[in-house]
Amino acid sequence: MEKLGIIGCGWLGEKIAKSAIYKYKIFSTTTSEEKLTTLKNQNFNPYLVKFSDHEDLDYENLFSNVDIIIITIPFSQRTPVTVLKQRFKNIIKFIGDFKGQLFLCSSTGIYPQVDEIVTENSIDENLLNQNIWTIEKLMKSTFPQINILRFGGLMGADRFFSKYYQNKEIAEPNQVVNHTHFEDICKVFLKLIDLKINGEPFNIVSPEHPTKIEVFNCQTKNICKKSDGEKSGKCVSSEKLINKINYKFIHPNPAKF
């Protein structure tokens, strides 16, 4: 049985581990002592590892025997880039001289808010969010084999769009959404691993792009129809992924998450 290491076994990492444990022996990291017990009870072989944002640290080579690594540690566009670079330099030290299949969980927040269809290479590098782009470049230059997966807003289970707007006005209600259901993320990982894909960037976003108000009305009022008004915002395309691995989304419409 191959060994899969998940760096950062939080909300998403834990779901990936649950979906993969029937096929892979799981190893994981967490920064929380409380989470250690939860992960141990699920046979995710956790290690308590903290990646400092402020100083270089030395790490035991805990993942030396894994075959595949998935990095789910977030890197927000709102976090200072110097902090992010230090964090990921420590992650690089932790991974070491890894030559296996490697995945970085990134975000469609890398793209500017433009009124057009956006693909992995359609936006000029100078217009990308520089925090996210800096980390992607750092990881790509260190590990040429890395696959960079850009997710939309993470949804599914206890996360659904209307939950966050129960008593709150929706800004730009006619702006389209770019959402990703965690079940699709888990399935995509398994397919990419099976197909031995390396060195590729992929957008992982549900192919339908209703507006915010359409999603809200469908989820709260069961009124699932197109609203009046001109749509705005970027539509992040997953066509490359769909064509490359012949993928069919489990959850194509964010309004029905």
UniProtKB/TrEMBL annotation:
It comes from the Bacteria. InterPro entries: NAD(P)-bd_dom_sf. This is Pyrroline-5-carboxylate reductase catalytic N-terminal domain-containing protein. It comes from Halpernia frigidisoli.
